[in-house]
Amino acid sequence: MQTIKRDLVVIGGGPAGLSAAIAARENGCKDVLLVERDRILGGILNQCIHDGFGLHRFGEALSGPEYAQRYIDEFHSMGIDAMLETIVLGLGNNRRLQASSRNGFTQIDAGAVVLAMGCRERTAGAISLPGTRPAGIYTAGAAQNLINLQNIMVGRQVVILGSGDIGLIMARRLTLEGAKVEAVFEILPYASGLPRNIQQCLNDYGIPLHLGTSVIEVHGKERLTGVTVAEIDPMRHPIPGTERLVPCDTLLLSVGLIPENELSREAEVQIEDRTGGAAVDDTFMTSIPGVFSCGNVLHVHDLVDWVSEEAALAGACAAAYLQADTGPAKPRMIALNPGPGVRYVLPQAVSGRRDFTLSLRVTEPARERAVWVRAGDRQVARKKLMRLHPAEMVRIKVKADKLLEAEKLEVSVE
Description:
The chain is an alpha/beta fold.
């Protein structure tokens, strides 16, 4: 096993990893290594051939590969090193990585690490999907990969369980490829995807969306032949008498994403239960000094533009960490807590020394409400919105001068 030393190692070559590596180089870190398990850079964007990316970052609608290519070109123009087809098998709390590639095993001692591994989809087993296990059941992302990258059609008569954005986009994609999408069934009383995707991917193509409904049984032995669906009560139990059989040969699952934090847990990084990602401060540093987290491995985003912006800050902060003296003690941290109507807030703590952007998601849809950030009885920030939805992340800029003498902050919807 060869051993190498690098100042900064970025794990993941998707939009978060690329943006973090570029920002670190721009902020003075000359020795940056990006490790990616795929044979090409770009991550999940390579299979997202629809447009809608880059509206905030570049002011124009790009496809996923087009968006990724802009960062890949900049990455290569800076001469940043990348290890492709290399998987990180282990990460210690001393920032020591074990990686495997076709060239063998490599141990990397890093001065700082940026975690940008993205997220994975919940599977049939993860949601305890009842019934048999025939061919024809896919996660929406797996089907997207098969159709868009490998030119393999997954089925002709399709049911989609869950109304996450990938499932909605695949409803449109399958329709364009000639398949019949029978319906999208969502167990919640509201859709999980972005409103624009509901309109553009379902309504525009006449695909029905059934809320408060789920698959309660899968039928078929060798190949899927149909699913039984039923309406669901508030306790998530099927309502007797509402069952009906929907014939299909394909079932796509779009039932949520999970941040890919196995390496984070191995490094003993503190994990935030509400997000499934690391607990971070306003520099995106985790509980392990020198280990930073950003992108979908930190919390699931709905827009790649925010992933890139967040990762750029993480990369810049990692570069600053490497350049800082080791003398000063860690500043007093101000805790951030979700209040009524808020599912989670990020970061979980701030120093109060710099302006920062607060990210949050609400617990349920609402109209004409305001998000308040308070330090006790004192207002720190406020943002009024015409529409709030759990699928849409809310971002609020908070000024450092508003945090003077604050001990903790609470974020609530009123």
